[in-house]
Write the structure tokens for this entry.
Amino acid sequence: MKIFGSDFVSPKGLHARLLLAFISISLIPLLIVSATFFYVLIRNVEGENFAKLEFVNEAKRSEIRQYMQFATRQADSLSQTNIVRYSIGEFYGFSYGFREISTEPEEAARILRGAFGIGIGAKSADRDELISKALIYDNMHSQFHEEYEAFLASSEYDNLYLVNNKGRVVYSVLKDNYLATSIEGSIANSPLARVAQQTLARDDDESIVFGDFEFDPVTGEYVAYVGVKIRFYSRPSGAIVFRLQTDGVERIVQSETREAGQIYLLSSRQQVLSQPNGGIYSIGERPAIDRASLPKKAPRKLSVVCLVVQRLQLLVMLRCLTVTGCW
């Protein structure tokens, strides 16, 4: 080949051609060895990353399982106390107090919700109105309310509800839109109502029902509910439902994870419950777990491991070393 009138590529003479052939023959094994070395190196790094993923998953799975067992034991222990058994009683307790407000359940619900300032257009809570229109209920509230507040202060839950055998929410510590409603009425498809329905319907000895974390349209919060059936002298008296925020599991998932990378906690509905600072998803969003369906803005390569933890899933997303092409 001539470039500007001179041979630029073609070697001149036999010696030059032999030298070029010798260099080519020498480079081929070197290239093969180099490619093999980098291939083995990359595989080793990926193996180490996945080993780290498995370790993180095992550790977090164990912590979350212990946390959920601890929270469940708290709920079960309270449900077996006389405070709960008497406070929901049909002849002495909130069920009795609610029934004495009015013979019509919906009218009793309207009066009770109005006295606590619940509902559209409701005024602020008025103790005098509660005393004048629901004296027996007010007496029950004065007797048991502080006990329940003390339990929540030392437990993993932030609210609890008493549901009688007829499916009426006759009491809650924090007064929200569930109070005095029927789980068979307009809120029948709500997270709390589903857990209460399942709890009341159970006849076996295992009387605890866990509803996974999800958005609750009645309260506007992302929570889970734990229901426990209440029995008094072996007879069902109703159910107590506990509300669990995501704070507890988030503390576990996001603690000491700097070396592990990014950890996301998913519910059984594949919705994000916890993510690190600067996470690419929103709480409640369903992420694309399959690599083929990862969002375009996601890192180019993610090592993904999903493990079932009771009814939760732990999604670990580990940033690989730069040698693998990850960032």
About this structure: The helical segments are 13-79, 82-87, 94-101, 105-115, 127-133, 135-153, 191-201, 247-253. The chain has eight helices and eleven strands. The first strand starts at residue 2 and ends at 3. The mean pLDDT is 79.
